[in-house]
Amino acid sequence: MIMDFATSQTAFADALLHADRPVPDGITSARGRADAARFAVYRNNVFVGLTKALAQRFPVTERLVGSEFFVAMARAYAQDHKPASPLMIEYGSNFPDFIAAFPPASELAYLPDVARIEAAWTRAYHAVDTLALDLAVLAAVAPEMLADLRLVPHPSAGLIQSEFPAGSIWSAHQRDMVTPVVDWRPQVVLVVRPEMTVNVHILPPQDAVFATSLFNAATLGAAAEAAFAAGPAFDFGAALMGLASLGAFSALQPDEGNVP
Question: What is the structure's pLDDT at 259?
Fold first, then answer.
């Protein structure tokens, strides 16, 4: 039976990523025979390429688990996650979620969040260039108008909420000599590229609820209310100007529900 082109492509990709699959129909040597050995070499080259792509995107993750473990984890991921784009810089966007569900990595509970920082770093690096919100624009807003405004996150901005000091772990591994992380507390990490350089910021603990609310499209009033409820140390003005100065936002937006 002759398969259509789409079916043939699917069968070929499935055989490439699963070592237990036979050589697909129609793939033969010059003698007209299926050559399992040659196909296995090609299959291995594909896995090597995908594994290298993941290692380039997640270098700290690889450093934390070691090269041998990382290769095994990456191959397990690649087996069921074909590239969705010809741009290999995008490969592995859901690798952190895979790590979170990968039993052999369960002892390193912080590993998925470190990988999320690395995935956010790549997205920020390749995000569209957009000017960050000018602090003067924010400062010019009448105080009575602030509560009903929303802040639009910068296209490069990503916020990672972790029950672990994931930002400190990532930062410690940017140097050859890794120093132990002493303050083992939850962190909220902002990854953003307001200009030419990707920056990774660990937000002050008292600003975490506020930032998370804003990134979830809450108005400034609602975000401030949630932050004040979370703890008395929150300072609305300092938190707002602090996030804006980091380039976390690109625009102000009125609350549509309050627009006449």
Answer: 44
What pLDDT band is residue 12 in, cutting at 50, 70 and 90? low
Name the pTM for this structure. Answer: 0.84
User: What residue numbers bound the domain in which 77 lies?
Assistant: 1-108
Do 115 and 102 lie in a common domain?
Answer: no
HEC string for the chain: CCCCHHHHHHHHHHHHHCCCCCCCCCCCCCCCCCCHHHHHHHHHHHHHHHHHHHHHHCHHHHHHHCHHHHHHHHHHHHHHCCCCCCCHHHCCCCHHHHHHCCHHHCCCCCHHHHHHHHHHHHHHHHCCCCCCCCHHHHHCCCHHHHCCEEEEECCCCEEEEECCCHHHHHHHCCCCCCCCCCCCCCEEEEEECCCCCCEEEECCHHHHHHHHHHHCCCCHHHHHHHHHHHCCCCCHHHHHHHHHHCCCEEEEEECHHHCC
**Which amino acid makes up residue 168?**
S
Last residue of a domain, one of 88, 108, 128: 108
pLDDT per position as a tens digit, 97-128: 999 999 999 999 999 999 999 999 999 999 99
**Which among 56, 75, 108 is the end of a domain?**
108
Greater confidence (43 vs 215) lies with 215
Q: Are residues 147 and 166 in the same domain?
A: yes
Pairing status of strand 187-192 against strand 158-162: antiparallel
Q: Are residues 59 and 157 in the same domain?
A: no
85 with 139, same domain: the answer is: no
pLDDT tens across 191-230, in order?
Answer: 999 999 999 999 999 999 999 999 999 999 999 999 999 9
